[in-house]
Structure prediction request, 123 residues.
Amino acid sequence: AQLSYGADRLFMALHEAPWNVPARITERFRIRKVETSLQDYEFDTTFDLVYFDAFAPDTQPELWTADVFRRIFDILSEGGLLVTYSAKGTVKRNLREAGFDVKRLPGALGKRHMVRAVRPPVE
Prediction:
């Protein structure tokens, strides 16, 4: 509210949603905010897309490891995507080590590059 984002109803609904229970933001969008670390979270479902927007690898290196990316790889469906604005070499290497097919793409929103990592189908 102090940053004057209060006029955006959806923005406020996301931030005011309670922790650890599903919350309906719109008729077609629900969210469950979980108050835990990524490393400690026990996933109970699979996903088709992960938008990985952790702070930069230099700021939070513990979130950009091959072990963390393996955890994400394991909860993605075959052909599932992880996308991130970080195109740093160590990030791409760690994604490949975790099993992803990695491609650098032109960036969006003023970024030079971004990365798309795909969980390949099981053969």
